Amino acid sequence: GEDVEQSLFLSVREGDSSVINCTYTDSSSTYLYWYKQEPGAGLQLLTYIFSNMDMKQDQRLTVLLNKKDKHLSLRIADTQTGDSAIYFCAEKTGRRALTFGSGTRLQVQP
Amino acid sequence: EPEVTQTPSHQVTQMGQEVILRCVPISNHLYFYWYRQILGQKVEFLVSFYNNEISEKSEIFDDQFSVERPDGSNFTLKIRSTKLEDSAMYFCASSERLAGRSTDTQYFGPGTRLTVL
Asked: Which neighbouring-strand residues pair with B31?
């Protein structure tokens, strides 16, 4: 079955770049997503990438996909304190259900 | 910007009681979903719903759970007889079905925190 793994914690200084990594097992994934969850809040869609792409950039966010290694990363440029949150990677295969990783807690230090 | 809304934000109930969690999906969306997140654990898929019927469900979604679209705007999750282990954050999501290739992007509500005592 599908499995998505992420490291649990990342700490960066304000103004630095953050890179959050994710690995997945299902090679038939069609779309991969990044969601952000702030304390007490829901899941906010940040960006997504189609599996036949290897990079997508959206303002401060850059998504890199290595399909051979089944590795996805989210880079946040010029990280701000407001970026502190939990970041979830999720994949969708042929079914509609999303499979989520365990989330990476990003802490941004001033 | 349209958004998914959920009520209540927090529900406390006694074990064995029935609860209904409510969601209003984005108005032009056709697919609806429920997920749950037990504290400290992954977000898990429960069920998806399309055209007034369940299109997919996980092994978590047993006979204690049911979903319904009682009118043109609401989407509900009912838990018939709650157990302690049902305590979790329940997220509703919706997605739009587009012609041709679609990201089928799911937009999530803020969640309902269910506490079973």
From this structure: B50, B95
